[in-house]
Amino acid sequence: MSADGRAPAVDGQDLAVDGQDLAVDGQAPATDSWGPDLLGDGYEQQVLELGADPDGEGDVAAVLVRRAVRDGERVAGAVLYLHGFSDYFFQTAMADELAAHGLAVYGLDLRKSGRARRPGQTAHYVTSFERYDEELERSLALVAAAHPGLPVVVLAHSTGGLVAPLWLDRRRRRGEVAPVAGLVLNSPWFDLQGSSLARGPVTQALRVLSRVRPLRAMSSGSSVYGHSLHTSGTGEWDFDTALKPLDGFTVTVGWLNAVRRAQARLHRGLDVGVPSLVLRSDRTHWARSHSDDVDRADTVLDVRQIARWAGCLGGETTVVPVVGARHDVFLSLQEPRRRAYDVLARWLRDHRLGAAAGPS
């Protein structure tokens, strides 16, 4: 339980256990399989077939989405974006902002997430985050093939902000850092919410239950965060609520155990091999109903935990609290969102990643 008596939350959900190089595998990446995407004109997608699911839910795939480069835009690098839990790539405003800094934008819907989830599959369910390495490597190869010799920035949000640094640490240990040249984490999920006294027993229970009932559901309460974002509630963002439900997807024991294993690995220390920027809100506000505070704080994660564990990324790490930001700092209200983009622009410029917009 958290300090205020609430169960720990996962990307906006209150949880309680219910009573019950450019080649991949020796082959050059395909570059001619792009088709229309649900985001409409200017966006295309490519389905990455991944074969049989090691976790036993049929054949799995990931979906890579790209924003087409507009006339007059200069491309000096690329971004590979990773979403969080109960999420998918839909951030066209963010993509336009990145494009203004000379970055071609790609978003990856991981297996069983967003566009990639297939009938009968448990949303986001994996028992190890290392499963994601396959689609991450294939996506990176496609991005690198499309922009040879240019740097790639990995930008990841929430749970994606836990997936990305572990993947990059494994790449660095294999001596395969390039073409990745920078890492930007947007409110990464570095630890389980709640008191330190509760985290230990919860983690031990997950280890035991995940061996016998990995798909056991954990109940979730209403998410004020999701409703604060969407146009049907009080927000300004119009996303597909079948792919990003306002109340979030159900969390499973096996998936949360994979999260805890990944967090434990992070806590032992990583070296992602590139400079990192960590953006977060300046404060956390737990809430079950909407208020002005909900729109100006992280209602999902404890920002003190992000600050505590950011040093585990290794190398050069810049941590910037954005006053008044939401959990997804790039979906914040206009003023904090602008501040977050200004911080990102300075960091990109300081690290010579991207370029000012202008003719090619």
Automatic annotation (TrEMBL):
<dbReference type="GO" id="GO:0016787">
    <property type="term" value="F:hydrolase activity"/>
</dbReference>
<keyword id="KW-0378">Hydrolase</keyword>
<feature type="domain" description="Serine aminopeptidase S33">
    <location>
        <begin position="75"/>
        <end position="281"/>
    </location>
</feature>
<dbReference type="InterPro" id="IPR029058">
    <property type="entry name" value="AB_hydrolase_fold"/>
</dbReference>
<dbReference type="InterPro" id="IPR051044">
    <property type="entry name" value="MAG_DAG_Lipase"/>
</dbReference>
<protein>
    <submittedName>
        <fullName>Alpha/beta hydrolase</fullName>
    </submittedName>
</protein>
<dbReference type="InterPro" id="IPR022742">
    <property type="entry name" value="Hydrolase_4"/>
</dbReference>
<dbReference type="Pfam" id="PF12146">
    <property type="entry name" value="Hydrolase_4"/>
</dbReference>
